Amino acid sequence: MLDGSMQSFPLTLDKILDHAAKWHPDVEVVTAREKGPSVRIGYAALRVRARKASNILARLGVVTGDRVATLAWNSQAHVEAWFAIMGMGAVCHTLNPRLFEDQLAYIVNHAEGGLIFTDLTFVPLFEKLQPRLPNVAGFVIMTDRAHMPATTALRNPLRSEEHTSELQSRETISYAVFCL
User: Fold this and answer.
1) What pTM does this model have?
2) What is the per-residue DSSP string for 37-106?
């Protein structure tokens, strides 16, 4: 009987990104930018940045099987977080910004995720929802340094992690981490 496997490794998203980076390094991924123009990045550069974001997640204690939520627009930072989360074996569950607060709270609590990656535009929503999210250990705000909030009602101290691509040094994404 034949196994039916086409490769000797699991076909996970990080392998797909590895393939794209190797064979199509300069093919562009185009995303919207928060309060600005579209951003273009090649697959090779995206892979580098996603791996850096994975390292940030590991420093925050995320391990294989952990659930990490995202509530963000279609930005480069969201794509990086998406590949970073799944590339390290964690489960990424994207939240729909069109849902009502009660629905979002239910989904986050049901998933029992420890972290939520979010765009700046959703910080006020999570400031309001955080008392109803007992399983969330922290929020990661994805934005550039110029738009990073000086203060927020999200609890506990701000720890800022920054990662810059050597290939596109003009694109710096800062991650503001609020641990509850």
Assistant:
1) 0.82
2) EEEEEEHHHHHHHHHHHHHHHHHTT--TT-EEEEE--SBHHHHHHHHHHHHTTPEEEEPPTTS-HHHHHH
- Angle at CA of residue 96, ends 93 and 101, nearest 5°: 110
Q: Which two tokens mark 101?
A: 């607060």
Instruction: Please list, in sequence order, all residues whose beta carbon lies within 8 angstroms of the beta carbon of residue 9, skipping any fewer than 6 positions away.
Output: 15
139 vs 21, which has greater pLDDT?
A: 21
Which of 51-55, 63-67, 167-171 is modeled with the greatest confidence?
A: 63-67
Return d(Cα 89, Cα 62) in angstroms, integer: 9
Residue 169 confidence class, pLDDT cut points 50, 70, 90: very low
**Closest listed residue to residue 57, CA positions, set 85, 78, 95, 77:** 85
Beta pairing partners, 30: 40
User: What is the token pair recorded at 89?
Assistant: 């074996």
Q: What percent of the chain has pLDDT over 90?
A: 43
